[in-house]
Amino acid sequence: MAVADAARDALRGPALEPRRRTLTVWLLWLAAFGNGVVVVWLWVHGGGISLSGTLGGLLTSLGRLTALIGTYLVLLQVLMLARIPWLERRVGFDRLTVWHRRNGKVAVSLVVAHVPLIVVGYAMTSELSVGSQISELFDSYPGMVTATAGTGLLIGVLVSSLVIVRRRLAYEAWYMLHLSVYAAILLAYFHQIPTGNEFSANATQRDYWYALYAATVVLVIAFRVIAPMRHYLRYRLRVVEVRRESPDVVSIYIAGRNLDRLNAHGGQFFLWRFLSRGRWWQAHPFSLSAPPGAHRLRITVKDVGGFSGRLGELRPGTAVIAEGPFGTFTPALVRRERVALIAGGIGLTPLRAMLDELLERGLAVTLIHRVLREQDLVLADELASSGAVIVNVVGDHESPDSARLLSSEHLQDLIPDIAEREVYLCGPPAMMSHVRASLSGVGVASNRIHSERFALAA
Fold this sequence. Notes:
Blueprint lengths: L1 H11 L4 H29 L9 H26 L4 H7 L1 H34 L3 H11 L3 H18 L1 H4 L4 H25 L1 H5 L1 H33 L1 E10 L2 E7 L13 E6 L9 E4 L8 E7 L16 E8 L11 E7 L3 H13 L3 E8 L8 H5 L4 E6 L13 H7 L7 E5 L2 H13 L7 E3 L7
Parallel strand pairs: 7-8, 7-10, 8-9, 10-11
Antiparallel strand pairs: 1-2, 1-6, 2-5, 3-4, 3-6
Helix pairs in contact: 2-3, 3-5, 3-9, 3-11, 5-6, 5-7, 7-9
């Protein structure tokens, strides 16, 4: 009874967290929409709408408006993943990533639509052919070359983010393409502000856009350049040990000073930059795989090729820059006294890191580790001694004997009271989709299923 009472006391605070996240999301949407309204209002009152009453005038106005809104959304695109701690803690990296992806498609579509609308609108108004109008624009309007280059970069970023393309691109190529967004914004600035008729004639609108660009630059520099360097100087992170857990999995132990000040929790991840040859320019997200300590952190990484495949070669003493912690996938979300942790493969790492904290709070925890082969059961010894109920599920779904693994019936066999539990889920996307459907089938409410999918975006 005492343990149950202690658990209930521990849950009272975290129960408020989803409400805070929901309120924050609504406030952010309101702020973004309200600022967008201000942008459009300034444009309208600055003479942005053509009053000629002709089709050419209408197309020209639409072309200007799509460029205006598209550019505003591109600035929001950068801010979503500027790694602003308050924003990430309140909203979550997973949700920000989804917003980033969807907003990017809309932003680039609007910027691209601006081109034919303006060209055709100008051509109709000037009674020129489309080809002649294009030549006229490049001859008479400064910034057209930079604008074209910027639009091309944005299209390249969008195409590289499509799933079918992303899977075929090396991470390094994808990362560099996404970094080009900053160049695209700079090129757009040299086209928009100095040459836009509305901006040259309306000081208020021009100054407002100056402020938008300035705020974006300041926040990006503060949190993507200065903050990581401050972390490096403050915590002095170094690789102290590289331990092989299986033929294709290594654990990297990282020591530093005063790491308790990071205020990290199990389930969170950092963006890790190892300052060695060939790696210093790349930042990759990896979850903690052990409870964070005051002097040591651990990540456990599977070799999936490229960067991750070479981490086993890291030498002790290698300096490390870690941005974070990120993620709301932590024990703070728990509102029940019984918890189920379901991991697929290396998705075990954040669940292993949060396990001790859950147990210390007196919660009943069962962890299911789903793998294809016995050799994929990494960290098995420390899990076995943790005090939680550990269930290993081994097998390939392509085998008839393994077809029912983690189905609704199988989950209920493994954890009979799973419908009453809080569930944390981490693993490959296909596995998580399958398990979510199974959990729904046994009656687990969607607000009690916690997962976080993160993909690094520049």
